[in-house]
Batch of 3 targets.
Target 1
Amino acid sequence: MSIGALQGFTGSVSLKVTGVPSRVTASFNPATVNIRAGQTVEWRNTSIIGHTVTDNPPAAANAADSTLPPGAIPFSSGDIPAGKIFAYKFTVPGTYRYFCTHRVVEISKLYPDGS
C-alpha cells in the first residue's frame, strides 16, 4: 500500500481478508491499494479463521514481506477474529508492504497514487 503526499484527505477504504482453512489461498482483497495520507483503511475478516494485518519488519519471516516508508511506525492488528474489522489511519506517505503473521502467503501492498 502506498500513500500519496496529499494531507487532509479523509475517508476510509475497505479491504477484505479472505481464506479457506483447508487451502493455502488466504489473501488480502484487493492485493494492491492506492490511498492518500490521512485515509483510514479497514480490513474486514470475511474468512472463518483469524488473521492479522502486520507491517513490522522484525516480525516478518522474510524481510521482503514487510516494507515501511521512512518515518512510519510498525503496526499490527493482533488477531482479527472471523467477521471482525481492524482499522488503521495512514499518516506517513510511502509504500507499505504488509502481511498476515499466521499465513506467510498473505502479503499485500499499498502504492502511491501520484497525487
Target 2
Amino acid sequence: MTAVMMVEHAVELARLGIEVILVHNPIITSTGVMCDCHKGYACPSIGKHPIDKDWAAGSTTDPAILRQRFEIYPTASIGIPTGRRFGTGRKALPRSMPSNERLARSPRR
C-alpha cells in the first residue's frame, strides 16, 4: 500500500468517526522483518505499537491532523485504539459478520 493510500484510508476512518493513531511499520529485509522504530530487529512488537508515547491523547478523528502526522511519518501504518476509553471495551461482535459490518457496528465514543 502506498503512503498516499494509507493517508486516505486513515482519513476515511476518521470521517466515519473512528479515532486513528499512527503505528510503526514492519520492514521486510533480506535478513528478516524489522520494525521501523529505534529497536529494529530487536523490537518485540514489530509494526504493532504506536509511534507517539502519549498515543491515547493523540488519537484523532480530524483529517487535517492525520494528514499533518503522515507528513512527519510518511511510512506509518494505521492503528485504531481500543478499550473502554474509546468505546470498544469488552463488546465482541461475531466473527461470522463481514469485517466492514463489524467495524460499522462497533461502539464509538
Target 3
Amino acid sequence: MIKKSNLTRKSIRKIVQVGNSSGITLPVDYFESIELERGDKVETFYDYEGNILIKPISDKEILEKFRNKEASDSFQNEKKEMNEQNEKGTEREQ
C-alpha cells in the first residue's frame, strides 16, 4: 500500500551506465514506500513531453497483457488476410 505522505516526492537523479544500457537509480525509501524490492517487475510509460511513469506489474498482469497482445495480433493478421483475399476477389471480377 502506498503511503499518502510519499505520493509527491522530487529528487534529482543522474543517468548512469548499467552494462551496455543506461539507468536511473531510485532511493531506497521510494521502494519501501511502494513495497517494491530488487527483482520486482515494473512497467514503464513515457510521453512525448518527457514524462516517465514507472508502475509495479505482477507476473499475472504480464501474462494477461501478453495473451491480449497475441489475441490482438492474431485478429489483426486474420483481418489483413481477409482484406487481401477480398482484394484478390475484386481484381478477378474486373
